[in-house]
């Protein structure tokens, strides 16, 4: 099918605007701001290799600017795109210690949305030309409009997300997001700077046969995870499963959603609550997983029901095909019962 027969992301956002009660178009403009920022980050990620080479020589990038770490650069790009359009009243980012109030004071604007973002997840992979991603999570503020945002606007359960999604800067660049009505994927045509609906209504396959985990930490895993890995590797029925781990959450999740699989980042000895952040990594990916027919838990509880207490809190993360996550949870429960 020729490109111009496919729906663009811009057309899709407008078509779906009516999904939102009392939609004022603010949410559509918010998604458009994310779309724009993703194109700028995509451009910078795709030339990172060149910038690095030039950067190493003269510590400047190809435009002669002082080279910034790409994740700080991505953070600036998303914060600028979101704060210049009066579409959010607050932003929390992995790259910023505290949340940022976007002119919501007495003379500020009355935007009702806050965004939590991991601007460039897996950025250490850029040096070796491996896919990286941006992850975003969107809520309505819970405090009085027209007043500065407060921490409680960000410490909301995943079930209260208005929307969530990711950008994967891979062999092609895609935006994948949900507003609670399924998951849709859009592929960027870089020659036109336009995203096209390439993956409508994305869903996990019925069966999953891929497990994604950093087995280098095996000796430190809880016994339940060790037993689940042994189950995956056993010659029985449709097993052994295949091990695939890119070390980039967005890429591992994206492949597992298309081919079927489970991603696990468990707690372990020197990381009692795991590595991944609840608010801007696990909750948005959990929303997508559930909307695509999958499941996300901390090994025992639904991720989106966890009550946040801190902006950058971590959680163990089991996410993917429902059947695979439930089998892993079974092994985690046995482990607890045995103790
Ligand atoms: P490890 C990247 O830093 C990240 O947050 C995820 O994208 C990725 O899945 C994980 O950490 C990799 O962590 O400890 O296996 O290198």
From TrEMBL:
Names of the cofactor(s): Mg(2+)
Residue ranges of domain Fructose-1-6-bisphosphatase class 1 C-terminal in the record: 205-332
CDD domains: FBPase (cd00354)
Enzyme Commission number(s): 3.1.3.11
Any Gene Ontology CC annotation: cytosol
Main location per the UniProt record: cytoplasm
Domain of life: Bacteria
Domain Fructose-1-6-bisphosphatase class I N-terminal span(s) in chain numbering: 8-200
Pathway(s): Carbohydrate biosynthesis; Calvin cycle
Subcellular location: Cytoplasm
Catalytic reactions of this protein: beta-D-fructose 1,6-bisphosphate + H2O = beta-D-fructose 6-phosphate + phosphate
GO terms, biological process: fructose 1,6-bisphosphate metabolic process; fructose 6-phosphate metabolic process; fructose metabolic process; gluconeogenesis; sucrose biosynthetic process
Binding site for Mg(2+) 1: 94, 118, 120
Amino acids binding Mg(2+) 2: 118, 121, 281
Positions that bind substrate: 121-124, 214, 245, 275
Alphabetic keyword roster: Carbohydrate metabolism, Cytoplasm, Hydrolase, Magnesium, Metal-binding
Comment on bound cofactor: Binds 2 magnesium ions per subunit.
Molecular functions (GO terms): fructose 1,6-bisphosphate 1-phosphatase activity; magnesium ion binding
Classification via InterPro entries: FBPase_C_dom (IPR044015), FBPase_class-1 (IPR000146), FBPase_N (IPR033391), FBPtase (IPR028343), Fructose_bisphosphatase_AS (IPR020548)
Quaternary state and interactors: Homotetramer.
Family designation: Belongs to the FBPase class 1 family.
Protein known as: Fructose-1,6-bisphosphatase class 1
Biological source species: Marnyiella aurantia
This protein's encoding gene: fbp
């Amino acid at each position: 099918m020729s490109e111009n027969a496919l729906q663009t992301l811009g057309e899709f956002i407008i078509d779906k605007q009516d999904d939102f009660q009392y939609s004022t178009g603010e949410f559509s403009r918010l998604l458009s701001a994310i779309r724009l920022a993703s194109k700028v980050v995509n451009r910078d990620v795709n030339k990172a290799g060149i910038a690095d080479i030039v950067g190493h020589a003269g510590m400047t990038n190809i435009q002669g600017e002082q080279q910034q770490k790409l994740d700080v650069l991505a953070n600036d790009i998303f914060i600028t795109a979101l704060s210049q359009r009066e579409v959010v009243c607050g932003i929390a980012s992995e790259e910023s210690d505290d949340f940022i109030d976007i002119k919501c004071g007495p003379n500020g604007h009355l935007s009702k949305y806050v965004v939590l973002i991991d601007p460039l997840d897996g950025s250490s992979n850029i040096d070796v030309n491996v896919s990286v991603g941006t992850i975003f999570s969107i809520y309505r503020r819970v405090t009085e409009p027209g007043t500065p945002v407060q921490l409680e606007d960000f410490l909301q359960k995943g079930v209260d997300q208005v929307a969530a999604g990711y950008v994967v800067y891979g062999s092609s660049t895609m935006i994948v997001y949900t507003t609670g009505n399924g998951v849709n994927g859009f592929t960027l045509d870089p020659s036109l700077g336009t995203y096209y609906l390439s993956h409508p209504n994305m869903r996990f396959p019925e069966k999953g046969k891929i497990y994604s985990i950093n087995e280098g930490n095996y000796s430190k895993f809880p016994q339940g995870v060790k037993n689940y890995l042994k189950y995956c590797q056993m010659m029985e029925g449709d097993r052994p499963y295949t091990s695939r781990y890119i070390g980039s959450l967005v890429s591992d999740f994206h492949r597992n959603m298309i081919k079927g699989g489970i991603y696990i980042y468990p707690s372990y000895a020197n990381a009692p609550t795991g590595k991944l952040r609840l608010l801007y990594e696990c909750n948005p990916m959990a929303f997508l997983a559930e909307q695509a027919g999958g499941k996300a838990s901390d090994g025992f509880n639904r991720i989106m029901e966890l009550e946040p207490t801190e902006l950058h809190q971590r959680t163990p993360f089991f996410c993917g095909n429902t059947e695979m996550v439930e089998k892993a949870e079974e092994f985690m429960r046995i482990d607890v019962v045995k103790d």
